[in-house]
Design brief:
With about 100 residues, this protein is mainly α. The protein has one domain (about 1-100): Helix Hairpins (Orthogonal Bundle). Helices cover about 75% and strands about 0% of the residues. It contains 3 helices and no strands.
C-alpha cells in the first residue's frame, strides 16, 4: 500500500513541477489558469494518496477532495468570466498588455 502511494506522490510532484513551469513561462491568461489547475490537481492527488495510507480516517479524504473539486470548478467559472470581459475590453489575454488595468 505504501509503494502505491509512493508512485502517486511521484506523479503529483511531476504534475506540480509542470504546473509551476507553465505558470512561470506562459503569458496568456487562459494558459496560466490551466497551469494553476494542474498545480491544484497535483495537490489534490497528493492529498488523496496520503489519505489512503491510513484507513482509520474513513472517507474524510474523499469528502475533502469532492469539496475541493467543486470549489475549483466555481473558481474556474469566475476566472473565465473575468478573462472574457478582459478580452472584450482589450482584445487580448496577454498578461503584459493587461497591466494597464492597474490602479
Amino acid at each position: 500500500m505504501i509503494m502505491e502511494a509512493y508512485w502517486y506522490l511521484i506523479l503529483s510532484a511531476i504534475l506540480l513541477s509542470l504546473g509551476i513551469y507553465g505558470l512561470l513561462t506562459r503569458r496568456n491568461m487562459i494558459r496560466m489558469l490551466l497551469s494553476a489547475e494542474i498545480i491544484f490537481n497535483a495537490a489534490l492527488l497528493s492529498l488523496l494518496s496520503l489519505a489512503s495510507l491510513d484507513a482509520s480516517y474513513g472517507p474524510i479524504g474523499g469528502a475533502i477532495a469532492i469539496v475541493s473539486i467543486s470549489l475549483s470548478a466555481a473558481e474556474v467559472g469566475v476566472i473565465v468570466s473575468i478573462a472574457i470581459m478582459m478580452f472584450r475590453m482589450r482584445g487580448t489575454l496577454d498578461t503584459y498588455e493587461l497591466r494597464s488595468f492597474r490602479g
